[in-house]
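Complex record, four chains
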Amino acid sequence: MRELKYAILGLLNQKSMSGYELSAEFESALNEFWSAKHSQIYPELKKLTQEGMITYEVAISGHVLQKKIYTITDAGREDFLRWLAEDQPISPTPKDVFRLRVFFSGELTPQQRRSMFEGHLAQHLARLSYLRQQMNKFDTPPGSSSPEIGDYLVLTGAIMREETTCEWLKKCMDLAGI
Amino acid sequence: MRELKYAILGLLNQKSMSGYELSAEFESALNEFWSAKHSQIYPELKKLTQEGMITYEVAISGHVLQKKIYTITDAGREDFLRWLAEDQPISPTPKDVFRLRVFFSGELTPQQRRSMFEGHLAQHLARLSYLRQQMNKFDTPPGSSSPEIGDYLVLTGAIMREETTCEWLKKCMDLAGI
DNA sequence: ATAATACATGTACATATTGACATATATGGT
DNA sequence: ACCATATATGTCAATATGTACATGTATTAT
Protein backbone atom coordinates (compact mmCIF):
# COMPACT_ATOMS: atom_id res chain seq x y z
CA MET A 1 0.00 0.00 0.00
CA ARG A 2 0.91 3.69 0.16
CA GLU A 3 1.19 3.64 -3.60
CA LEU A 4 0.69 7.40 -3.86
CA LYS A 5 3.70 7.81 -1.59
CA TYR A 6 5.90 5.84 -3.98
CA ALA A 7 4.49 7.49 -7.08
CA ILE A 8 5.47 10.86 -5.58
CA LEU A 9 8.87 9.65 -4.38
CA GLY A 10 9.55 8.18 -7.82
CA LEU A 11 8.75 11.46 -9.53
CA LEU A 12 10.81 13.49 -7.06
CA ASN A 13 13.63 11.01 -7.55
CA GLN A 14 13.65 12.04 -11.22
CA LYS A 15 13.47 15.77 -10.54
CA SER A 16 12.67 18.23 -7.71
CA MET A 17 9.35 19.95 -8.20
CA SER A 18 6.33 21.61 -6.60
CA GLY A 19 2.99 20.06 -5.66
CA TYR A 20 1.44 21.81 -8.62
CA GLU A 21 3.98 20.30 -11.00
CA LEU A 22 3.47 16.86 -9.44
CA SER A 23 -0.23 17.30 -10.07
CA ALA A 24 0.49 18.02 -13.72
CA GLU A 25 2.66 14.88 -13.96
CA PHE A 26 -0.21 12.73 -12.73
CA GLU A 27 -2.35 14.19 -15.47
CA SER A 28 0.20 13.66 -18.21
CA ALA A 29 3.02 11.14 -17.80
CA LEU A 30 1.30 8.89 -15.24
CA ASN A 31 -2.16 9.31 -16.71
CA GLU A 32 -2.24 5.83 -18.25
CA PHE A 33 -1.84 3.98 -14.94
CA TRP A 34 -2.21 6.33 -11.99
CA SER A 35 -4.09 9.44 -10.98
CA ALA A 36 -4.27 11.75 -7.99
CA LYS A 37 -5.99 15.05 -7.37
CA HIS A 38 -4.21 17.93 -5.69
CA SER A 39 -6.46 17.41 -2.67
CA GLN A 40 -4.70 14.09 -2.14
CA ILE A 41 -1.22 15.23 -3.17
CA TYR A 42 -0.79 18.20 -0.81
CA PRO A 43 -1.62 16.26 2.37
CA GLU A 44 0.67 13.42 1.25
CA LEU A 45 3.53 15.89 0.67
CA LYS A 46 3.02 17.21 4.19
CA LYS A 47 3.13 13.68 5.58
CA LEU A 48 6.22 12.72 3.59
CA THR A 49 7.97 15.86 4.83
CA GLN A 50 7.15 14.94 8.43
CA GLU A 51 8.45 11.43 7.79
CA GLY A 52 11.73 12.80 6.47
CA MET A 53 11.28 11.30 3.00
CA ILE A 54 11.34 14.71 1.30
CA THR A 55 12.28 18.33 2.08
CA TYR A 56 11.27 21.58 0.45
CA GLU A 57 12.52 25.05 -0.30
CA VAL A 58 10.28 28.01 -0.91
CA ALA A 59 10.66 29.71 -4.28
CA ILE A 60 8.98 32.83 -5.63
CA SER A 61 6.94 32.88 -8.83
CA GLY A 62 6.59 36.42 -10.13
CA HIS A 63 6.75 38.95 -7.27
CA VAL A 64 5.23 37.32 -4.20
CA LEU A 65 3.55 34.01 -5.06
CA GLN A 66 5.26 31.29 -3.07
CA LYS A 67 5.73 27.74 -4.20
CA LYS A 68 7.38 24.83 -2.41
CA ILE A 69 9.95 22.91 -4.38
CA TYR A 70 10.19 19.41 -2.95
CA THR A 71 13.36 17.31 -3.06
CA ILE A 72 13.72 13.65 -2.15
CA THR A 73 16.05 12.85 0.78
CA ASP A 74 18.49 9.93 1.02
CA ALA A 75 16.02 8.16 3.31
CA GLY A 76 13.28 8.73 0.74
CA ARG A 77 15.37 7.42 -2.12
CA GLU A 78 16.31 4.36 -0.09
CA ASP A 79 12.69 3.63 0.75
CA PHE A 80 11.60 4.17 -2.86
CA LEU A 81 14.26 1.80 -4.26
CA ARG A 82 13.38 -0.83 -1.65
CA TRP A 83 9.72 -0.63 -2.73
CA LEU A 84 10.61 -0.70 -6.42
CA ALA A 85 12.73 -3.83 -6.09
CA GLU A 86 10.21 -5.67 -3.89
CA ASP A 87 8.73 -8.86 -5.21
CA GLN A 88 4.97 -8.41 -5.40
CA PRO A 89 2.09 -10.59 -6.55
CA ILE A 90 -0.05 -9.29 -9.40
CA SER A 91 -2.84 -7.12 -8.07
CA PRO A 92 -6.45 -8.26 -8.36
CA THR A 93 -8.04 -7.28 -11.66
CA PRO A 94 -9.02 -3.62 -11.37
CA LYS A 95 -12.63 -2.53 -11.21
CA ASP A 96 -14.12 -1.73 -14.60
CA VAL A 97 -17.64 -0.27 -14.73
CA PHE A 98 -17.96 -0.77 -18.45
CA ARG A 99 -17.30 -4.50 -18.19
CA LEU A 100 -19.84 -4.61 -15.38
CA ARG A 101 -22.38 -3.14 -17.79
CA VAL A 102 -21.42 -5.57 -20.51
CA PHE A 103 -21.88 -8.45 -18.06
CA PHE A 104 -25.49 -7.34 -17.59
CA SER A 105 -26.00 -6.25 -21.21
CA GLY A 106 -28.39 -9.15 -21.91
CA GLU A 107 -31.04 -6.94 -20.27
CA LEU A 108 -30.68 -4.23 -22.91
CA THR A 109 -32.48 -3.98 -26.22
CA PRO A 110 -30.34 -4.49 -29.35
CA GLN A 111 -30.55 -0.74 -30.03
CA GLN A 112 -29.31 0.11 -26.55
CA ARG A 113 -26.48 -2.39 -26.81
CA ARG A 114 -25.43 -1.00 -30.15
CA SER A 115 -25.32 2.50 -28.76
CA MET A 116 -23.32 1.34 -25.72
CA PHE A 117 -20.64 -0.43 -27.73
CA GLU A 118 -20.43 2.19 -30.45
CA GLY A 119 -20.08 5.01 -27.96
CA HIS A 120 -17.27 3.27 -26.17
CA LEU A 121 -15.48 2.23 -29.31
CA ALA A 122 -15.41 5.83 -30.52
CA GLN A 123 -13.89 6.99 -27.25
CA HIS A 124 -11.27 4.25 -27.18
CA LEU A 125 -10.31 4.91 -30.79
CA ALA A 126 -9.79 8.56 -29.88
CA ARG A 127 -7.58 7.59 -26.95
CA LEU A 128 -5.63 5.19 -29.14
CA SER A 129 -5.04 7.91 -31.67
CA TYR A 130 -3.81 10.25 -28.93
CA LEU A 131 -1.44 7.60 -27.55
CA ARG A 132 0.03 6.85 -30.97
CA GLN A 133 0.70 10.54 -31.41
CA GLN A 134 2.39 10.56 -28.00
CA MET A 135 4.71 7.86 -29.27
CA ASN A 136 6.15 10.39 -31.72
CA LYS A 137 8.05 12.05 -28.89
CA PHE A 138 10.52 9.18 -29.19
CA ASP A 139 12.47 9.78 -32.41
CA THR A 140 14.02 6.38 -31.87
CA PRO A 141 13.23 3.74 -29.20
CA PRO A 142 15.23 4.57 -26.08
CA GLY A 143 18.01 2.15 -25.14
CA SER A 144 17.56 -0.27 -22.26
CA SER A 145 19.58 1.95 -19.91
CA SER A 146 18.11 5.26 -21.05
CA PRO A 147 16.18 7.25 -18.44
CA GLU A 148 13.22 7.23 -20.84
CA ILE A 149 12.90 3.46 -21.00
CA GLY A 150 10.16 3.25 -18.36
CA ASP A 151 8.07 5.89 -20.07
CA TYR A 152 8.50 4.09 -23.40
CA LEU A 153 7.53 0.68 -22.00
CA VAL A 154 4.32 1.91 -20.36
CA LEU A 155 3.33 3.87 -23.46
CA THR A 156 3.87 0.76 -25.57
CA GLY A 157 1.69 -1.16 -23.11
CA ALA A 158 -1.02 1.50 -23.14
CA ILE A 159 -1.23 1.38 -26.93
CA MET A 160 -1.41 -2.41 -26.96
CA ARG A 161 -4.10 -2.28 -24.29
CA GLU A 162 -6.22 0.22 -26.24
CA GLU A 163 -5.80 -1.75 -29.47
CA THR A 164 -7.05 -4.88 -27.75
CA THR A 165 -9.95 -3.02 -26.15
CA CYS A 166 -11.03 -1.73 -29.56
CA GLU A 167 -10.78 -5.23 -31.05
CA TRP A 168 -12.82 -6.60 -28.18
CA LEU A 169 -15.55 -3.97 -28.62
CA LYS A 170 -15.81 -4.81 -32.32
CA LYS A 171 -16.02 -8.49 -31.46
CA CYS A 172 -18.76 -7.74 -28.93
CA MET A 173 -20.83 -5.95 -31.56
CA ASP A 174 -20.29 -8.88 -33.86
CA LEU A 175 -21.14 -11.56 -31.28
CA ALA A 176 -24.11 -9.64 -29.93
CA GLY A 177 -25.37 -9.39 -33.49
CA ILE A 178 -25.78 -5.67 -33.88
CA MET B 1 -21.13 6.24 -8.59
CA ARG B 2 -22.77 3.68 -6.31
CA GLU B 3 -21.39 0.99 -8.59
CA LEU B 4 -21.59 -1.66 -5.87
CA LYS B 5 -25.29 -0.88 -5.61
CA TYR B 6 -25.80 -1.66 -9.30
CA ALA B 7 -23.57 -4.72 -9.26
CA ILE B 8 -25.74 -6.13 -6.46
CA LEU B 9 -29.02 -5.11 -8.11
CA GLY B 10 -27.84 -6.69 -11.36
CA LEU B 11 -27.06 -9.98 -9.67
CA LEU B 12 -30.34 -9.99 -7.74
CA ASN B 13 -32.12 -9.21 -10.99
CA GLN B 14 -30.77 -12.50 -12.31
CA LYS B 15 -31.64 -14.51 -9.22
CA SER B 16 -32.64 -14.02 -5.57
CA MET B 17 -29.83 -14.89 -3.18
CA SER B 18 -28.20 -14.29 0.19
CA GLY B 19 -25.35 -11.94 1.06
CA TYR B 20 -23.06 -14.93 1.31
CA GLU B 21 -23.97 -16.06 -2.19
CA LEU B 22 -23.52 -12.54 -3.52
CA SER B 23 -20.07 -12.59 -1.96
CA ALA B 24 -19.28 -15.80 -3.82
CA GLU B 25 -20.47 -14.25 -7.11
CA PHE B 26 -18.04 -11.38 -6.68
CA GLU B 27 -15.25 -13.91 -6.26
CA SER B 28 -16.23 -15.96 -9.29
CA ALA B 29 -18.41 -14.51 -12.06
CA LEU B 30 -17.53 -10.83 -11.46
CA ASN B 31 -13.94 -11.49 -10.49
CA GLU B 32 -12.51 -10.21 -13.78
CA PHE B 33 -13.91 -6.69 -13.42
CA TRP B 34 -15.31 -6.13 -9.93
CA SER B 35 -14.71 -7.16 -6.34
CA ALA B 36 -16.30 -6.56 -2.97
CA LYS B 37 -15.71 -8.03 0.46
CA HIS B 38 -18.59 -9.15 2.66
CA SER B 39 -17.81 -6.23 4.96
CA GLN B 40 -18.90 -3.94 2.15
CA ILE B 41 -21.76 -6.11 0.87
CA TYR B 42 -23.74 -6.54 4.10
CA PRO B 43 -24.00 -2.81 4.88
CA GLU B 44 -24.95 -2.11 1.25
CA LEU B 45 -27.72 -4.74 1.43
CA LYS B 46 -29.04 -3.05 4.55
CA LYS B 47 -29.04 0.31 2.81
CA LEU B 48 -30.72 -1.03 -0.33
CA THR B 49 -33.41 -2.62 1.82
CA GLN B 50 -34.05 0.71 3.55
CA GLU B 51 -34.22 2.38 0.14
CA GLY B 52 -36.82 -0.11 -1.05
CA MET B 53 -34.63 -1.45 -3.85
CA ILE B 54 -34.64 -4.99 -2.42
CA THR B 55 -36.53 -7.07 0.16
CA TYR B 56 -35.57 -10.24 1.98
CA GLU B 57 -37.04 -13.37 3.48
CA VAL B 58 -35.37 -15.36 6.20
CA ALA B 59 -34.61 -18.98 5.34
CA ILE B 60 -33.17 -21.73 7.51
CA SER B 61 -30.03 -23.68 6.65
CA GLY B 62 -29.90 -26.96 8.57
CA HIS B 63 -31.78 -26.67 11.89
CA VAL B 64 -31.41 -23.11 13.11
CA LEU B 65 -28.89 -21.13 11.03
CA GLN B 66 -30.68 -18.19 9.48
CA LYS B 67 -29.91 -16.64 6.14
CA LYS B 68 -31.55 -13.73 4.38
CA ILE B 69 -32.61 -14.32 0.80
CA TYR B 70 -32.72 -10.98 -0.99
CA THR B 71 -35.06 -10.25 -3.90
CA ILE B 72 -35.03 -7.18 -6.14
CA THR B 73 -38.19 -5.01 -6.07
CA ASP B 74 -39.87 -3.33 -9.04
CA ALA B 75 -38.32 -0.04 -7.95
CA GLY B 76 -34.92 -1.72 -7.80
CA ARG B 77 -35.26 -3.27 -11.24
CA GLU B 78 -36.35 0.07 -12.67
CA ASP B 79 -33.39 1.87 -11.15
CA PHE B 80 -31.00 -0.84 -12.33
CA LEU B 81 -32.27 -0.75 -15.92
CA ARG B 82 -32.09 3.04 -15.94
CA TRP B 83 -28.44 2.85 -14.83
CA LEU B 84 -27.63 0.11 -17.34
CA ALA B 85 -29.03 2.06 -20.28
CA GLU B 86 -27.40 5.36 -19.27
CA ASP B 87 -24.88 6.86 -21.62
CA GLN B 88 -21.60 7.15 -19.78
CA PRO B 89 -18.13 8.37 -20.74
CA ILE B 90 -15.28 5.87 -20.48
CA SER B 91 -13.82 5.90 -17.00
CA PRO B 92 -10.30 7.17 -16.41
CA THR B 93 -7.67 4.48 -16.88
CA PRO B 94 -7.64 2.39 -13.72
CA LYS B 95 -4.74 2.45 -11.31
CA ASP B 96 -2.13 -0.20 -11.99
CA VAL B 97 0.75 -0.58 -9.53
CA PHE B 98 2.74 -2.81 -11.82
CA ARG B 99 2.76 -0.24 -14.61
CA LEU B 100 3.80 2.34 -12.02
CA ARG B 101 6.81 0.14 -11.23
CA VAL B 102 7.59 -0.33 -14.91
CA PHE B 103 7.51 3.44 -15.35
CA PHE B 104 10.28 3.74 -12.76
CA SER B 105 12.09 0.54 -13.80
CA GLY B 106 15.03 2.48 -15.21
CA GLU B 107 16.25 2.66 -11.60
CA LEU B 108 16.54 -1.12 -11.32
CA THR B 109 19.51 -3.30 -12.21
CA PRO B 110 19.05 -5.59 -15.25
CA GLN B 111 18.80 -8.57 -12.89
CA GLN B 112 16.05 -6.93 -10.86
CA ARG B 113 14.13 -5.96 -13.98
CA ARG B 114 14.38 -9.48 -15.32
CA SER B 115 12.99 -10.90 -12.10
CA MET B 116 10.16 -8.35 -12.08
CA PHE B 117 9.00 -9.10 -15.62
CA GLU B 118 9.47 -12.85 -15.39
CA GLY B 119 7.55 -13.07 -12.13
CA HIS B 120 4.65 -11.15 -13.58
CA LEU B 121 4.62 -13.04 -16.84
CA ALA B 122 4.36 -16.36 -15.00
CA GLN B 123 1.40 -15.11 -12.99
CA HIS B 124 -0.41 -13.71 -16.02
CA LEU B 125 0.17 -16.91 -17.99
CA ALA B 126 -1.41 -18.85 -15.12
CA ARG B 127 -4.41 -16.52 -15.12
CA LEU B 128 -4.73 -16.84 -18.88
CA SER B 129 -4.69 -20.60 -18.63
CA TYR B 130 -7.41 -20.48 -15.97
CA LEU B 131 -9.57 -18.15 -18.08
CA ARG B 132 -9.26 -20.38 -21.15
CA GLN B 133 -10.39 -23.30 -19.08
CA GLN B 134 -13.35 -21.23 -17.88
CA MET B 135 -14.32 -20.76 -21.50
CA ASN B 136 -15.04 -24.50 -21.69
CA LYS B 137 -18.25 -23.97 -19.75
CA PHE B 138 -19.72 -22.73 -23.01
CA ASP B 139 -20.17 -25.79 -25.23
CA THR B 140 -21.13 -23.42 -27.99
CA PRO B 141 -21.03 -19.59 -28.04
CA PRO B 142 -24.31 -18.30 -26.56
CA GLY B 143 -26.67 -16.54 -28.95
CA SER B 144 -27.06 -12.78 -28.85
CA SER B 145 -30.28 -12.99 -26.83
CA SER B 146 -29.14 -15.77 -24.49
CA PRO B 147 -28.95 -14.87 -20.78
CA GLU B 148 -25.31 -16.02 -20.87
CA ILE B 149 -24.24 -13.48 -23.51
CA GLY B 150 -22.89 -10.94 -21.00
CA ASP B 151 -20.84 -13.54 -19.19
CA TYR B 152 -19.45 -14.77 -22.51
CA LEU B 153 -18.52 -11.28 -23.72
CA VAL B 154 -16.64 -10.34 -20.56
CA LEU B 155 -14.80 -13.66 -20.48
CA THR B 156 -13.78 -13.15 -24.09
CA GLY B 157 -12.53 -9.69 -23.14
CA ALA B 158 -10.64 -10.98 -20.11
CA ILE B 159 -8.81 -13.56 -22.23
CA MET B 160 -7.90 -10.97 -24.85
CA ARG B 161 -6.69 -8.63 -22.12
CA GLU B 162 -4.48 -11.30 -20.52
CA GLU B 163 -3.08 -12.33 -23.89
CA THR B 164 -2.11 -8.74 -24.61
CA THR B 165 -0.60 -8.30 -21.16
CA CYS B 166 1.57 -11.39 -21.70
CA GLU B 167 2.67 -10.14 -25.11
CA TRP B 168 3.50 -6.76 -23.61
CA LEU B 169 5.59 -8.31 -20.82
CA LYS B 170 7.56 -10.33 -23.37
CA LYS B 171 8.10 -7.19 -25.42
CA CYS B 172 9.29 -5.36 -22.28
CA MET B 173 11.89 -8.04 -21.59
CA ASP B 174 12.96 -7.78 -25.19
CA LEU B 175 13.12 -3.97 -25.30
CA ALA B 176 14.79 -3.72 -21.91
CA GLY B 177 17.40 -6.16 -23.19
CA ILE B 178 17.17 -8.91 -20.62
C1' DA C 1 -16.21 -38.15 18.26
C1' DT C 2 -13.60 -34.59 16.39
C1' DA C 3 -11.46 -31.56 13.50
C1' DA C 4 -11.34 -28.90 9.38
C1' DT C 5 -13.70 -26.35 6.24
C1' DA C 6 -17.71 -24.14 4.47
C1' DC C 7 -21.77 -21.48 5.48
C1' DA C 8 -23.65 -17.23 7.41
C1' DT C 9 -23.86 -12.34 9.17
C1' DG C 10 -22.37 -8.61 11.10
C1' DT C 11 -19.24 -4.35 13.08
C1' DA C 12 -15.04 -1.31 13.74
C1' DC C 13 -11.22 1.02 12.24
C1' DA C 14 -7.93 2.68 8.95
C1' DT C 15 -6.86 4.25 4.53
C1' DA C 16 -7.82 5.95 -0.15
C1' DT C 17 -10.08 8.91 -3.15
C1' DT C 18 -13.08 12.38 -5.05
C1' DG C 19 -15.60 16.71 -5.35
C1' DA C 20 -16.48 20.87 -3.31
C1' DC C 21 -15.06 24.81 -0.81
C1' DA C 22 -11.67 28.49 -0.16
C1' DT C 23 -8.13 31.85 -1.43
C1' DA C 24 -4.70 34.43 -3.88
C1' DT C 25 -1.16 35.68 -7.56
C1' DA C 26 0.70 35.61 -12.51
C1' DT C 27 0.38 35.99 -17.30
C1' DG C 28 -1.23 36.79 -21.88
C1' DG C 29 -4.63 38.55 -24.94
C1' DT C 30 -7.99 42.24 -26.23
C1' DA D 1 -7.84 48.50 -17.84
C1' DC D 2 -9.95 44.12 -17.94
C1' DC D 3 -10.77 39.34 -18.44
C1' DA D 4 -9.69 34.59 -18.94
C1' DT D 5 -6.74 31.16 -17.88
C1' DA D 6 -2.92 29.24 -15.60
C1' DT D 7 -0.20 28.96 -11.41
C1' DA D 8 -0.20 27.84 -6.54
C1' DT D 9 -1.72 25.74 -1.97
C1' DG D 10 -4.61 24.20 1.13
C1' DT D 11 -9.03 22.04 3.90
C1' DC D 12 -13.45 19.50 4.47
C1' DA D 13 -16.94 16.13 3.96
C1' DA D 14 -18.62 12.12 1.72
C1' DT D 15 -17.85 7.81 -0.28
C1' DA D 16 -15.34 3.58 -1.15
C1' DT D 17 -12.60 -0.11 0.16
C1' DG D 18 -9.90 -3.36 2.80
C1' DT D 19 -8.25 -5.71 7.13
C1' DA D 20 -9.26 -7.25 11.30
C1' DC D 21 -12.44 -8.30 14.91
C1' DA D 22 -16.42 -11.04 16.45
C1' DT D 23 -19.69 -14.85 16.56
C1' DG D 24 -22.08 -18.96 15.61
C1' DT D 25 -23.97 -23.19 12.76
C1' DA D 26 -23.52 -26.98 9.06
C1' DT D 27 -21.25 -30.40 6.64
C1' DT D 28 -17.70 -33.54 5.39
C1' DA D 29 -13.72 -36.23 6.06
C1' DT D 30 -10.98 -38.86 9.32
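Note: Chain A touches chain B through 75 residues (CB under 8 Å).
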